[in-house]
Amino acid sequence: MEFLGILESVGKAVDVAGVVAIVLGAVLATLIAVGALLRGGAGEGVYHRYRQGLGRSILLGLELLVAADIIRTVAVTPTFQSVGVLAVIVLIRTFLSFSLELEITGRWPWQKDPGAEDRQMLARTAKPLDPPGQNAPSEGQDVGQH
């Protein structure tokens, strides 16, 4: 098989992976939501987690589909028309990705997580706990000498 044929096959495989990611993610998110509802989970919380799971699978699928488009368009048929069509497709899918990210996390992809800095500060300043028995006085040692 020649090089262009291999790239075309890789592009198709990544396309299939994108569709599979979306479908499997949707099925998995649905099964998890149904299971949570059957266990008596709160409807609003289940719905929110369901949307997050579904959104994440769609985001992953979109990223794979964009990668497949880039492989096929740039590597296989690099004409001005195909690159222009690719640009439009990438813009639409990027907009969808940003919108989904906003839905899932409540902020744009370029915005920081409001609690991330606090968690990093705590991680840097927190003193690790001594393992049990490591700083305990040994037999015969005076507690004041520790």
UniProtKB/TrEMBL annotation:
InterPro entries: DUF1622. Residues 111-146 are annotated as: Disordered. The keyword Iron does not apply. The chain crosses the membrane at residues 16-38, 58-77, 83-102. It holds the Pfam family DUF1622. Coiled coil: none annotated. The keyword DNA-binding does not apply. This is DUF1622 domain-containing protein. Keywords: Membrane, Transmembrane, Transmembrane helix. It comes from Kocuria sediminis.
